[in-house]
Amino acid sequence: MVSPCHSLTMRNEFATALAFLTILPMPNIPFDAARFTRAGRWYPLVGLLIGVLLFLVDWAAGQLFPPLLTATLVVSAWVALTGGLHLDGLADCCDGLFAPVAPARRLEIMRDSRSGAFAVIGVVLFLLLKVTAVAAVAAPLSALLLAPMLARWTLLLAARQPSARNDGMGSGFAAGLTGDVFVFAGLSVLLIGALLMLRGAWRVPIAILAVHGTAFAAILFARNRLGGVTGDIYGLIVEVSELTVLLVYAALI
Description:
Blueprint: H1 4-21, H2 33-38, H3 43-62, H4 67-81, H5 85-96, H6 103-111, H7 117-136, H8 140-159, H9 169-175, H10 179-198, H11 204-226, H12 231-250
Helix pairs in contact: 3-4, 3-8, 4-7, 5-6, 5-7, 5-12, 7-12, 8-10, 8-11, 8-12, 11-12
């Protein structure tokens, strides 16, 4: 039997994960660094919840509008639900990672709140890709559930990598990440993936393999350019992981 105290702790962890990864209204829980890290176990399930909401938007909009407009509304809801958190990281990475300067200078560029030309171009192209991919997916339910869930699982993979700087939220999250958090999140991904496969979603294992390949490629690129990962790299990995799932489901195979 789960004790009331343990149940409250888990609810607070889940609420912390929701408050950090979405704009959904949550109870005002005082910040606690240890709970913030433990909340990582719920990241894939928060991603699954995001996917459910996105599918509802896709279904409702699809009753009224053509596919491309429906896809645009879905991606708009996607950005709104997450408060643009990961898209901001993508923009900073576009500015910093490709700059022909030393790693320390790249980190300074990525910390700058101003957006340069690479950031604007990168975000616009990325959103165009995401909209057209959503419009072309072969199985919207499976794709929209899997993309945000797998992407938030990759946050934990990224947190296991060396940090490029010793300060910042990403570094603090990684420092307290324990094995039980990792295992709980991983089992959640495997369970949901298995349930989707039972429904005949044969693209699920392909998407899982593709996401892991994409995430580790982004991690290696970041380590080469910065010497490690940062909070902005976390955002980049989430965004490219989501797009990878959508491309797998949009592919003519």
